[in-house]
Write a structure and sequence with these properties.
Length: 301
């Protein structure tokens, strides 16, 4: 048994040396495709983190016209506080014009044109509201009610942001999965072609082995092992790339100011470890399948 295992590994190593270019190409393609698969999982988890954080604290902003009278402003505040069963009254926050302008400077920091159109005199003040309910329909019903109050310029819902995030998440997921599947298929084809080339190069040796009584699996195992190792090495490389990518992203997010919500996009290390284990399994299976099909198709045993 030990001799057979030793023979299988010796032949696998020898085949690698004979087909270095094809083997390296297969490994690189496997690594890139699996890295895309892993990145897809991480991106999806990051978006899920963001959505969960927001859905657990559904927000509403009631904008008040700049020319509102003190009486109308008081009336708006009383209306907001008159529904303690639906609105978390203790978390209602009012930003006057100066506070709203300071917030606008942060929001439009990358858009100086829009910011130049605003001033302390023209910007609306705002009430920030946190509904107790997580029912989006009830939240929208409240927003419709508040829009009719005198002095209200408009109402924005955090739920509207969810639609944007969900759409973006779905688009990114679809594109990355499609690209990774295409590249993974290319990797399997490259492994398949590598094994076919190796079989052709050793066809005389294989004929001799068959004449002296070598079994089908004795001949096939080194080729299957070669493809499996190619897929596994590609997976290991992709895991290294994924770990580096996640570490760089986590370090970058740490530089953002607290309270921006960006920190929710950080993916925990335990989830990354699970994804890397999955990539190792996918890489080994893909390599084994590609080499197994090739050895069965091109070995006339």
């Amino acid at each position: 048994m030990i001799q057979r295992i030793s023979y299988a590994f010796r032949e696998t190593i020898a085949s690698f040396r004979r087909n270095v270019t094809l083997s390296v190409a297969a490994i690189i393609t496997s690594a890139v495709s699996l890295l895309l698969v892993g990145a897809t999982f991480l991106i999806q988890r990051a978006f899920d983190n963001l959505l969960v954080q927001w859905r657990g604290d559904v927000g509403m902003i009631v904008f008040v016209r700049p020319d509102v009278t003190p009486e109308a402003l008081t009336f708006i505040e009383e209306n907001l506080k008159s529904q303690p069963n639906v609105i978390d009254v203790g978390k209602i926050a009012y930003l006057d014009k100066a506070g709203s302008y300071e917030e606008a400077k942060r929001v439009f920091a990358g858009d100086p044109t829009t910011l130049s159109l605003l001033s302390v005199e023209t910007i609306p003040s705002q009430f920030k509201v946190v509904p107790k309910t997580t029912d989006p329909e009830l939240v929208r019903s409240l927003a419709t009610q508040y829009r009719t109050l005198p002095g209200v310029a408009g109402v924005s819902l955090a739920e509207d942001e969810f639609d944007v995030i969900s759409t973006l998440s779905g688009f990114v997921r679809t594109v990355t999965i499609a690209m990774s599947l295409v590249l993974l298929a290319v990797a399997v084809i490259l492994i398949w072609n590598t094994i076919r080339t190796a079989i052709f190069a050793r066809r005389r040796e294989i004929e001799v082995m068959k004449l002296v009584g070598a079994t089908d699996w004795f001949i096939r195992v080194p080729f299957i092992l070669e493809g499996l190792i190619q897929g596994l090495v590609g997976a290991i490389v992709s895991c290294g790339g994924l770990w580096t990518l996640n570490k760089a992203w986590t370090s970058g997010v740490a530089e953002f100011k607290a309270g921006t919500g960006v920190s929710s996009l950080v993916v925990p290390g335990s989830y990354v470890n699970g994804v890397m284990i999955a990539l190792l399994i996918i890489g080994a299976v893909a390599g084994g399948v590609g080499s197994g099909v090739a050895s069965s198709k091109f070995l006339d045993v």
